[in-house]
Amino acid sequence: MKSIAIIGVSLVDTILSTIKEMPVLGGKTSTFVDSLVTRPGGGAANMVQNLALLDVRVQLFAKTGIDPEGDFLFKTFAGAGVDISCVKRDPVLPTSHTIVCIHAGGERTFLCCTPISGVFSINDIDQEKLFSHPYFFYQDFFSFPELDIKSSVLLLKAAKERGIVTFLDECQGCLGIRKDIWEKVLPYVDYLLPSAGDLALIYPGKTPKELCRLFHAMGAKNIIIKRGKENTVFFDGRSMAEMAPLNGKVVDTTGAGDAFDVGFVWGIMGDRSFQESVAVGHEVASECITHIGASIPGNRKKDLLEALARLTGK
Description:
alpha/beta; UDP-N-acetylmuramoyl-L-alanine:D-glutamate ligase; eight-stranded mixed beta sheet; 11 helices; 14 strands
């Protein structure tokens, strides 16, 4: 398997399950949950762990603090087989942290403290090593004011000029959802994998198919719009298609979109077709949501790889 570089958020998730009711200021100020677990979090962190589980060689470009939380992330990533030699550590700011509240049905809300996102910049990225990989995934767009606004076009354009296959996904980061910077990067993206819910904030009233055509006209080569429980819509510039996600037990939807990205990347890197890669994305996402947290347990590796082999015939 070829290698991939991933830029994005790497933080610590404290996951509370299950939130039966939220505390109310001036009313019932306490609520009680059944479990609390700590896991690596953030789109990039979620991806690199699960890609390594699927035997993909992956290098992470991110930033943490020099603190116990940062140590936890380094130890976890290294144990998973992720190349963390290009993860920077800030001597002043603490590692970012998110409280993940799991509600009934596995849906979740977040409370985020991400100070390092504000200072992560192109100066923290070893571009020579980044561009040494044939695949480059820019994850967690809208999370890095310095990087997204000032340098995202530069990095993606430079990757394309080198013949590197580029992927882009976004999240509701500290920048919100910014239409202006979003549209600037589209000409340099081979595979665009946004969430329909996020897109609705900047393109209200537009259908997923309309958005696919719009983004392709703006330069994105292939578009995959993730829609949670609804059909994924994807477009390669010639044909538009839909595919239903897999039904199954839902425990926690944290990282489901990132898990889809993992499966899709695994498919593309393994020379599967566009449609096969979407199906693989659904398979990995369906596995992810049966567990607390975004990282798929190691004891599921064999079964998952066998399922992917059956799915694609390889």
